[in-house]
């Protein structure tokens, strides 16, 4: 393999990565969500959503209402949570909203998950509302998180495929 082919394959790999990032950022702008796609990681929302389901999110401008399924981030936690809104308190004139959530498969509300001293979520915690689902496709992500060596093997395999691709 000559240097020119090697450089071309490296450029192709860079274009693939750049394209994926551009698509992700475009989805962020269109949906108004910092994470337009999330994977359900636990069984707390069964039977509505199962572990490994992919959810498509949209934030929108409409007020959050009881019964909606939202994805939220808590201060000090890296992993977002997918749960249903069970109570909403709005203060008129102040534009303040307090939200309480619960997993459909859980016995109690999420106050035990919130940081100490926090009894409600506010709009800043909400990443988006579930607008669509792709069942079980996210199991690949869960497997890669559970088995990190699988993640590196897959990345290596994809890199190898790009580098060994022969164009005429």
From TrEMBL:
Transmembrane in keyword set: yes
Domain Peptidase S24/S26A/S26B/S26C: 23-90
Domain of life: Eukaryota
Catalytic activity: Cleavage of hydrophobic, N-terminal signal or leader sequences from secreted and periplasmic proteins
Record keywords: Endoplasmic reticulum, Hydrolase, Membrane, Protease, Transmembrane, Transmembrane helix
UniProt xrefs under Pfam families: Peptidase_S24 (PF00717)
EC number: 3.4.21.89
Cellular localisation: Endoplasmic reticulum membrane
Chief localisation class: endoplasmic reticulum
Topology in the lipid bilayer: Single-pass type II membrane protein
CDD domains with a match to the protein in the record: S26_SPase_I
Functional note: Catalytic component of the signal peptidase complex (SPC) which catalyzes the cleavage of N-terminal signal sequences from nascent proteins as they are translocated into the lumen of the endoplasmic reticulum. Specifically cleaves N-terminal signal peptides that contain a hydrophobic alpha-helix (h-region) shorter than 18-20 amino acids.
Family stated for the protein in its record: Belongs to the peptidase S26B family.
Protein name, as recorded: Signal peptidase complex catalytic subunit SEC11
Organism: Dunaliella salina (Green alga)
Organism placement in taxonomy: Eukaryota, Viridiplantae, Chlorophyta, core chlorophytes, Chlorophyceae
């Amino acid at each position: 393999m000559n240097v020119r082919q090697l450089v071309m394959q490296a450029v192709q790999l860079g274009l693939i990565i750049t394209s994926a990032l551009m698509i992700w950022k475009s989805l962020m702008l269109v949906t108004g969500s910092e994470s337009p796609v999330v994977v359900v990681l636990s069984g707390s929302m069964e039977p509505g959503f199962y572990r490994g389901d992919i959810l498509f999110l949209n934030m929108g401008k409409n007020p959050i209402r009881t019964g909606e399924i939202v994805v939220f981030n808590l201060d000090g936690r890296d992993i977002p949570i997918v749960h249903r809104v069970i109570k909403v308190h709005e203060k008129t004139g102040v534009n303040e909203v307090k939200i309480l959530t619960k997993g459909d498969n859980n016995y109690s509300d999420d106050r035990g998950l919130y940081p100490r001293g926090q009894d409600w979520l506010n709009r800043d915690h909400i990443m988006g509302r579930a607008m669509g689902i792709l069942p079980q496709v996210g199991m690949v992500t869960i497997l890669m998180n559970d088995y990190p060596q699988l993640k590196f093997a897959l990345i290596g395999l994809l890199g190898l495929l790009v580098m060994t691709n022969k164009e005429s």
